Amino acid sequence: MASGRRLAPTTEEDWDDETRSTLDALGRLNIFRVLAHHPKLLKRWLVFGGHVLNKSTLPARERELVILRVGWRCGSEYEFGQHTLIGRREGVTEDEVARLTVEALDGWSPRDAALLAATDELLAEHRVSDATWEALTADWSTQQVMDLVFTVGQYSLTCMALNTFDVALDPGVPGFPS
Fold first, then answer.
1. What's the domain range around 32?
2. CB within 8 A of 75, min separation 6: which ones?
3. Structure confidence by residue, pLDDT tens digits, 116-125
4. Taking the model in full, what pTM does it have?
């Protein structure tokens, strides 16, 4: 254990050729270097995570709102920080980032509020209420609602891993807003 972390990031000396190639393609972020303690898990997790992040039917901005809300609700500063940067590139404003860290859903459009309410309910109850289902299906396709559920699940799982393994923020990545 290094720097008070439960799992220190692996180093290049720890990697086989396949893991090195994977990390070179992804970027050597702490999350990937920690998960490289289990290369087969990392490889398989990346397939599903790749769908959620890059092939989801949710628009990128809305996907990032959901991921940021999951990061905040799960208390994962790492996930919240990484997706603050990604969210900014996808059109999430600083005001929106800050508003994702409060309970109330005041000020969100009905479409955004439905996504965030569903996110909150999935994390708290592991399902969405009938009212939230109606709000979601009024604006979002079946595939988008499915991608929403699996996005919340994927990032909840990721937050559990990040929090449990005590993964440090990467340099230059913000944490939670002040």
1. 12-53
2. 159, 163
3. 999 999 999 9
4. 0.95
